[in-house]
Specification:
globular, mainly alpha, 0% strand, Growth Hormone, Chain: A, 2 domains, 82% helix
Length: 394
Amino acid sequence: MKPATSTLFATGALAFASVLSATVLIPVVRPIMHWVAPDGDSGSHAFMSLNLLGGVLAAPVIARLGRRSSSPTRLVSRLAFADCALLLLIAFRLPVVPLLILRTVQGALNVGVLSTLLGAAPPGDASRRGSRYGLWGMAMMLGVALGAPLGTICLLLGVRAPLLASALLNLLVGLCAPLAGLQRQNPLGAEASRKPSFGRAAWWVFAERFSVGLFVVTFALHARTCLGISDARCGLLFTAFLVPFAVAVYPAGRAADRFDGRVLAVLGLSAYGAGFLRLRATGQEQLLLLMPLLGLSAAVIFASAMRDAATANDSQSRVPAMSALNAAGNLGMLLGTALAGILSALLRARGAGADTAHTLVFYIGGGVSLSVAAVTLSGALLAPRVARSVRVRS
């Protein structure tokens, strides 16, 4: 295997392990909080929300560290080892407040590992960067898809088992970080002076994850209470969303190398938004067709965003870009989940039926994606006119 190929797959494997270390904890959320504080469920929500908040708050810190660090490999290893240590502390059944503080910091460390890894990895040829980041994005989404099942299996061995498994994964990431061939690349010439515009890519990821945050709990409740779908079939529908999402990120990244990423993002966001608007009126049989379409649309959005954020040739620019994408995704999940719960509670308190609350949540998710698609399309159409106007004035 050529060195470039080995570092490509090593980075993908490390990204998979880093994401898996976070998602393997999903099944342990309720058991660990009831183990520590058996009197209520609010701690379970805090356990997940504070982890996402830590990822959001970490973005500017990681961006600063990425610019200053002389060795991205050492930075990844230190962050992964620290994440491992915090998970081992959490497994010691700490009191609620220290546990939640560590959980927040642990979320920041996990995002730091992933952002530095993807930002400082050799980007390869500019014409094939979408396929490279598409492969890494696929590895990340496979970590999302496999985390809950593997965490459930670990949970059979006890409450601490998923925490220890997550700590072991972080330990392996820290030890194997040199395999990714991370390098601090000093910017040179005109290319270095051009700062990449990754703001739009962050908005694409935010819209996609915001809709997922709205969707996860609300759809499970909607499927159970309004459509009469069993928990097992609901799990199948979630799988029908996640598997196409994970598998399609790589071919979507290849497509982003050939076509304008903004065009692909607009298509993905439009299909994604339209799919969410259709959720309310879709029956059981049609859901098996709609869910894969939602997954494919999400893959196009995610791959386009990664390709758009990875345009810079120097790691000092790519690390902040990847930090921004991860922060936008965490913020979207956090706000989407919170908004879905708040809206449902308010509407039910005013006497609205479950179907009405679920419909509003789905419409908000679709509306946000369609709005971001419209803004992106407007920017793409106006950009040539603005460029011509600037040239005329100069």
